[in-house]
Records
---
Amino acid sequence: MILDIITSGLINGSVYALLAIGFSLIFGAARIVNLAHTAFYMVASYCIYYATHKMGIHPVLAMLVAIILVTLIGLVCYKLFIDPIREHEAAVLIATIAIAMALQEIMLLLFTGDFLSVPSLVSGYLNILGVKIAYQQLLTIGVALLILAGVWAVLMKTRLGLAVRSTAQDREVANLMGMNESRVAMITMGISVGLAAFAGAVVVPLTIVNPHMWMHPLIFMLAVVVLGGLGSLKGSFVGAYILGFAESIVVFLLPMGAFLKGSVALSIMILVLLIRPEGLFGVAFEEER
Amino acid sequence: MGILSFYPRKIYTLFKGEVLVLPSRIVVFLFVVVLLFLPVVTQDSYLLRILILTSIFAILAASWDFLSGFTGQINFGHALFFGVGAYTSALLNLYVHIPPYGSVPLGGLAAVLAGLIIGIPCLRLRGTYLALTTLAFPIILMGIIFAIPGITGGELGVSGLSRLSGSRLYDYYITVVLMLGLCTIMWKITDSKTGIIFHAIREDELAVRTAGINTTRYKLLAFSLSGFFAGISGGLYAHFMRIAGPSTLEVSLSFTVVIWAVFGGIVTIYGPVGAVFLLFPLLEFLRFWPEFRMLMFAVVILLILLYMPDGFFPWVRDKIEKECPRCKVRNIATRKTCRVCTAPLD
């Protein structure tokens, strides 16, 4: 039981962390609340399904193709629909919801609403104290942590990361210091969508693929981001594991837990916000000038 | 004879001077007249049903605009008010046997309570934080509803409520008149002194506080008033559909409300109402291609946002009307001089 909770908490937490960090990045660098973020995750899952089942490509290759393809789709959506209306905040929100809905409907048309699944990369399981832990689960956790470390390194050690972080801190000053603000936004959008696609890729063998699979992670991702503090990467990371573990504890321990998991996780978020309105690691953003 | 014809003549003069001078006012007048006299022409049950649902959602969209557009407190969980209204009226009707004219306002009051409960913690948050936090409340309530299926019916919802009234025609008049009345009340509130404070809170909350106004109280007022209107629309929906299900709390409903309001133009009240009357029947009309319905909806919204990011109705209004640069009175775009102060227009 405890081991079950730990593995499922780690998997949920890692996926939420991948999603939430991507979302935080684009919110920090460009102040875009991208509600279509998890829709890209859904599209990536479908790409992998299509590539492995219909075209017979090796799963690892399929994942790479899916990530590149979805990143391109994300950048095209950004250029076409979000970039021209960036100064209207409410309009951007609606545009991203509309993009998410459009992607969902396109997937519904192409693949119908059937529940699909993708075979795991590695079979077999580890037997610890009588609890079966599939190798696929361990692989998912490991790869997710590796990617998180990679993102961390890019943000902290490279010039690009410096540009992204300074744009997040103050857009206008970053612009004055010679960083091309719109290009940083574009690149950040690419990284962010890429991370969403990656989350889809690591989780797809463990989950069911259907056109509505983006809604639940979206809610949790938003809760994670708010809990950790908007735009704070460390906050997103910690918040993701808090909510991931909360979700799995509720599912395993409470009666009717599957119905209440959302309620409990979101109540935790609200309780934290009551005590710290800017989230756990929130940096209070200065008012936009 | 002179006295008898005085009032009709006065009304006619007022009508000519106030309504006929501006195309937007003529449109609103025609809209009201058509809505009220439509059943004289046709009593097609299907058409009336669509218009009833449209009116109910128009109240909801206008109430979102009242809260989020005017005070700038972006609420992503507006379905909470709708759902609380719907479930409260449904449970009161089913278990306590309160007829619709009692249970719908009580549903509204329950939604006011919900507004206060979420308003008090949320007032500490601003901007995007607030928007994302409010999204959580309907989901929390939905979890609770699923967890106690004995009372709430779980996934199936509460069904078997009494009808709104005896016939489709009465239903139509009740909802349409309520919609027109409530939207007028909302518009009047936003036009009053309170409304000016709401505008000011959106523009610069700190400045309002500096002016000695208790902004917390006004924000709570906005939350509870908006909750009341949304709760009434929820109650009407429950009694019209005769079921209150979890679909009234869904995230997609909250999003749809925001889409309607932003499409129609926020901070207007008339915008969201017009948007619902445009988009909701459009969705019904597109049912001939059920697979493409939502896709077309999303694409239409994306295109509209690209070309008119302030919303559809303000865009149209700016095309057909001009504001006088001197006295700020609106004029029809074809005029060369202002109708009040005769200053040349642009």
---
Amino acid sequence: MAHRDRKGRPVVAITGMGIVTPLGTGKEDNWKKLTAGESGIRTITRFATEGLRTTIAGAVDHVYEEGMHSATLSEKLARLAGTEAIAESGIGSKGDFPGPLFLAFPPIEIEWPQRFALAAASGANEKIEYGDLVRAAGRPEFRRFYEESKYGVVPDNLAEHFGTKGSPISLTTACASGATAIQLGLEAIQRGECEAALAIGADGSITAESVVRFSLLSALSTNNASPQGASRPFSKNRDGFVLAEGAAALVLENYDHAVARGAKILGIVEGVGEKADNFHRTRSSPDGKPVISCMRNALADAGVTPADVDYINAHGTSTPENDKMEYLGVSTVFGEHLKNIPISSNKSMVGHTLTAAGAIEAVVSVLTILNQRIPPTINYEVPDPAIPLDVVPNKARDARVRRVISNSFGFGGQNTCLVLTGEPG
Amino acid sequence: MTARRDVIITGLGLVTALGEGPQANWARLAAGGPPPYDDKTFAPYITFPAPPLNLDTQIPKKGDQRQMEAWQRIGVYAAGLALTDAGIAKNTEILDRADMIVAAGGGERDVAVDSAILTEVRKSEKPDAFVNERLMSDLRPTLFLAQLPNLLAGNISLVHGVVGSSRTFMGEEASGVDALRVAHARIAGGQSEVCLVGGAYNGTRWDLVLLFRLGTPLLEPPFRPVWDRGPNGALALAAMGAFVVIESRDHAERRGAKPIARLASVQSSRNLRKAGESEKTLRNEIAAVMPSVKKDSAVVISGASGAEPATSEEKKVLAETGLPVRATTTYIGNGMEAQFLANIAFGCQAIRAGTLFPPSGSGDTGDTPAGGISQALVTSVGHWRGEGLALIERVD
């Protein structure tokens, strides 16, 4: 008999997971380091940081190759994570994934090295205008700049590489993107459009200009002297997030389909909630309503109550505002029960992988359930009395974890929460 | 599989070089004048500029207007037109739970800052540090918010209050097709009741002229219809915004909304654009809906891009259907993420008007069916990818 969830929908299982973070490549390496409380944040060496206010990041230096741009690095990250996930799942065959691709990916564009090359080729001697760059643009050697800068190219490359079916969907909901990719895959399976979907969140877009952009919005930690101690979610002395790169992939599959082919069930995506915020472009509504609705929508979608949640995988960016807002949100939603629920932030170790974060944290949430062990919030030395939470400070903890809510709150007001559990029964 | 529900289009918002609103756009097409292109600003390249918009009518706060760049203002404006047309603007009860899928580009650089840096960096001994320092001092902090694709949706939430959900798809024409396909599937499958779907694009920018010139021929004078741009083809970048409000039939009826048309189906596909592949894909998409097409009263609104050989392949397949065909790109240019949604609006308008506009170019064939128009097939054969087909029907 077909399995149905509490709402009568097909049950959606996770049968494969892949992950890349500044800590390393693959679940094994990442899990070991996450539970050891290691930080992946370092001083930036990929480009000159002179003149920048922030000079630290969680860059994936072990993946980066000389000359890569945001698009090419992000694509490589997506391939690594996707390959690990599909291999674990054992679904389809090499280059033939039996379902659609949902890719959370950073917006890309022409970058400075490319502009410099075009300017040099333009032959303009005095002032360089865009018209000069355009005149040089027709040369065949610059055609690759087009492919490195157009939104549709990477999802198409990945669809070809993994052999996913149909038009690949590339999406962004800022810091919630990874969770949105999972949500879209979940919904497609629930609708019966497919038996499986590949959800990937990837982000390898740290450039000098991206650092500048976030700096100008005063979003980044400037604790350059102590890179590994810079990401301090929920601490009183937190001073901003740390930009990072990474990717995660999840093979989502109709539970019955997975069981029928003998796949190992790693976890279940039990519910998703979303709610947009219309308060401000970069700040959350001070009453916390959108974030509260988002979590409540996720619990309602899963058909569970706050008391059914054992652990919260926090958005926990380490910005003064987010962490305060997240506390307001969880304390409202979970009330008295909150004192029994540990809540930790993977970003304390990994940094904020932006587009990839929701997917990375979903994978870590499932690993938390599989291992019955909660990764810590590191750098928690000075508790913020306004945020009284059990943040699993500094050391991993063994715990009974059956159900996790993973929060993703995006810049621009897009919020998504996932409810994840282990294999049923 | 969940029971399929009827999906109704109840609101249209359209901004193209022809004007604002589907009726005004259609009137310009019907009048058969010259396409409203601009061959001066980005000479030698031809572009289609945004029409004059009274932004205050849809974006009342000047502060909001300032925080956006042109592509976002066009999109937020068009989204407001669609919500107003659907009769749900300012209806907080509905907007609070209304879903939203936006197809968005982004970018929009400060070309003055870029040009100054490129000019002056040559005198610098430490070019990397020079760029860092100049970006830190010269970029407007809020420019970033005008560059992020998801901030179009973010601005729509802020200005119009659509907050049920918010998702942004990226990837030129394909993202517009998939935005509508997913929104349609969610409503048909019972996952959503009402959704604002759309896209916006501003191709009248040097940074985008640069991007496309790197990989695609751009149209230069003399102006030619989209079907007849030679063996290498050519695009004419455009400013464009297009949004639709779609909802379940039940939801529309309960609130007494006037249906514009029924969105019967939306398909999207992918191929690698090897010779003949666009032809095959489009033929398959058409074959999938042909059993429900009324041959004596259906028309095709083509989204042909002007890229070749895709446009010629599309022309061939559409001719095989025997249905009257009109391509709108000749008159509105290439609006990428907004293109398919704009053509959905034109398809609706064809059904409402019951007549077609005069043909232009070798692929525009046939005349208005004698018995009026009951269905429109809307195609997308994007400039690089972006294969799609929607079927829209009159609600009798």
